[in-house]
Amino acid sequence: MTAAKGKAKGKGTVEGEGASGRRGRAEGGRGAGTVAELVQGQWGDHRVGARCGERTLTHHELAGGAAARAALLGELLPRGAEPHIGVLLDNVLEYPLWLSAAALAGVAVAGINPTRRGPELRRDIRHTDCALLITERAYVPMLAGLDLGIPFSERVLVVDDPAYEELLRPYGGASPMETLAVAGRRGVEPGTRMLLYFTSGSTGAPKAALCTQGRLAAAGRSLVGFLGVRRDDVHYLCMPMFHGNAVIAGWAPALAGGAGIALRRRFSASAFLPDVRRYRATYFTYVGRAVQYLLATPPAPDDRDHPLRTGFGTEAGAVDVARFAERFGVRLIEGYGSSEGGAAIQRTPDTPPGAIGRPAPGGDLAVVDPETGAELPPARLDAAGRLLNGEEAIGELVNRGRSSFEGYWRNPEATADRIRGRSTGGRVGAGWYWTGDLFFRDTEGFFHFAGRTDDRLRVDSENLAAAMIENILARYAPATGVAVYAVPDPVAGDQVMAALSLRDGTGFDGEDFAAFLAAQPDLGTKMAPRFVRTVAALPVTATNKVHRVALRRAGFRCPDPVWWRPMARSAREEGTAGLVGDLGHLKYRRFTAEDRDALLDVYREHDRLALLER
After folding, report:
1. Per-residue b/e over 96-127, b at no fewer than 16 CB within 10 Å?
2. What is the reported pTM?
3. Fewest beta carbons less than 10 Å away: which of 20, 420, 606, 608?
């Protein structure tokens, strides 16, 4: 198989080093206005910069490798095309190398989610106008037969193909201090596009959130201060790099602070501590599900024998944060935010149990009525922490101040919907940032997460749109009606629940339904329902719309029959029911009263039982 065709013609047009290059090198990236300057700051630093398995690269080698790939971009990106490349890789060294190369070249990286399939995978690549795709052999079969809009043999680079190394060889002497002209673009500015990261909304297909070099560099510098990043730190990147979590909260602060990185191809709970010890990792990013799997590993007497100081992420929950600290001696810092950059909440030392925290500096966050924009009254909590006035206190979280949201690629409607609002003069559409998440604020000013808007789910820290899943389940022949909605996960985020009305005389066949799901090419690995409720007819409102609120509140505690896929309770199950789904292993069985009681005990254990009432 050939990685790419074409004869290398040279290193592209270059300019002198320039003041920005010298400044980035002299300061090691401190105060750099672009990611390119941060990459340039690695040049000449011969400390270990990255490790993955048996491979090790110094900071200097990372910068040089990025420069070589940036020079190659100058040859392969066609003139006049959008300067976008898709990266469809696991967490291997090529991922940060291509991020750095794109920064030097003024090119944007679209992180392609490998759990997507068929038409949806094709749509992601084409929607972001990828003129080049970087992938590996394991994912080539997924691309077979898909019209990607680019010549496969010329502009799909397979990084573990021998032809790839030959393609890079002529550029081995490239320096990151050179400003490369790529596809007609000269120079890199803070406003240069850097990332297009997909996030799902409530209106169907995933949206590609924009992130410029200036915003990513600023995020990295901010986290250096917030986390106390040191040059001898090692950031362990075990969350997938096609998501903003690993790049914005892991890679960027390491780059800005001069720290090293260590990569794990895919998250593994059983390999976590061995990796941490092997790489001498001091920091990692996480999502709540990962923390659950780590806590599910068998305790060992050397659980605290490691160099980890801190973890930073979302949705771990107060109970698991405390358990993690007690068992591993590691402080987990919970936050709230998204790759869009529209709103952020930071946990402070005085944050009470159950709350997320206070607004990050620069934000003017409020909980408002989504219909009127009026700020809602603070929540009243009893001594046990139960919410007493949820109906009047719960609303949508908005940022009324300056946000770093930069819009969605080729989706002006979604961009406008995010920044609708009211100015102090009362004009509609003045630019508030609407998160789409439900919160309440207590009398001390702490924000508490209360759920998602009706058509959104968050599974394993991945946003899903219920409408997309419904469109797939509607193909199931025995079903006459389908509704998909979120039920709270007992530990973090949501689980997918589906209500199916079946044809007269048709019973639910779990094996047949699982086989149907496995055969759907556009069903992502997070989309398969955890619970399936069968009903004679879907409940509707007075306007004949599906009554999602009633379905969601009843959840799995409904009078109708429910089938389910039991949740993984140990690290050994992570491959089939954890962060990496496997549609070939779907198995449904009847949800019994014993199952319900045992599951409710898990909710109580994690102090999340109240979520089932909202």
Report:
1. bbbbbbbbbbbbbbbbbbbbbbeebbbebbeb
2. 0.78
3. 420
